[in-house]
Amino acid sequence: MNIYLVRHGDLYWEDNIKKCIGITDINLNEEGIKKAELVGSFLKDKNISKIYTSSLKRCKKSAEIISSILNVPYHIENELMEINMGIWENKSFDYIKLKYPKEYENRGKNLSTFKIENGETFLQCYERSNNIFRRISEENYDNNVVIICHSGVIKSIISSIENIPLDEILSIKLEYGHIIHINYNKKQYKII
Asked: Does the pTM of the predicted model rise above 0.70?
């Protein structure tokens, strides 16, 4: 079985300021739409039978584009949503560092267990992401699937497969539109 983890495309920033946007629901920009089209073209000969996506706009739009290119339906899975950043949602990183300096420093030191008010820890995101990933792969073992989601979710899955400590998860680099090809043979997951 082949699983293609796809990070959504580039984002539309209203004021051109990059922000902390876990579950904040924002759209793709033109470049993000082009990247989704390129991903769809790349996957055209991969015999994809199902597409799964986060319910957030940036992933859903990517799924719509890829679905139309592949002529394969997409299914929304809420568990594929990005990590919830609580009261930091939709705030610039400069603002966060200024307003919450101790918390920001603590997050850097205790990434897996740090939880901002009304948010989620990376450990919670990791467990949720890997549970849905394993469920999708078991339910679709005889098929090839695409999972369109977010950086935190993909990094959580990669860290599980590659045995990367959760506190080092931010060392995994993913660009917008990045594709991670994973092979699963019922015994193990292997990043190709």
From this structure: yes
Please say whether the beta carbons of 29 and 61 come within 8 A. Answer: no
CB-CB neighbours of 101 under 10 Å: 10
pLDDT in tens, 8-45: 999 988 777 888 999 999 999 999 999 999 999 999 99
Question: In angstroms, rounded to a whole number, what is the distance separating the alpha carbons of residues 55 and 163?
Answer: 28
Could you tell me the two tokens for 85?
């950043």
Element (DSSP H or E) covering residue 149: strand 144-149
Bridge partners for 147 per DSSP: 5, 52
- CA–CA distance from 33 to each of 75, 101, 178, 192 (Å)? 19, 35, 13, 26
CB 43 within 8 A of CB 146: yes
Beta carbons within 8 Å of 11's beta carbon, 6+ residues apart: 21, 26, 27, 28, 29, 32, 58, 176
Q: Are 11 and 25 in contact (CB under 8 A)?
A: no
